[in-house]
Design brief:
The chain is mostly helical and 78 residues long. It has a domain of 27 residues. The protein is built from 3 helices and no strands. The longest helix is centred in the first third of the chain and has 15 residues.
């Protein structure tokens, strides 16, 4: 009888999944990848105080020619 992982089985622990991935990578001969702090650059802030309170909405203008063409096409750009 072979082992079959069912959809409703619980996941392994993160330690077990990490060790499985490490074992697979070592068997495949993949080089260890590291990310340096220089490669990340500056990370944007997620603090609430760093964002503006109100963001102005863009103003969209419709020219007379575009409105006339839309009326002819029944798009009604009012």
């Amino acid at each position: 009888m072979s082992y079959q992982r069912l959809a409703y089985d619980d996941q392994d622990t993160t330690v077990q999944m990490h060790s499985d991935c490490t074992a697979c990578a070592s068997q495949m001969g993949l080089p260890e990848q590291t990310i340096s702090a220089d490669a990340l650059g500056t990370v944007p802030s997620i603090e609430f105080e760093d964002f503006p309170r109100e963001i102005a909405k863009p103003v969209i203008t419709v020219s007379e020619a575009a409105a006339h063409l839309a009326a002819r096409l029944h798009l009604h750009l009012d």
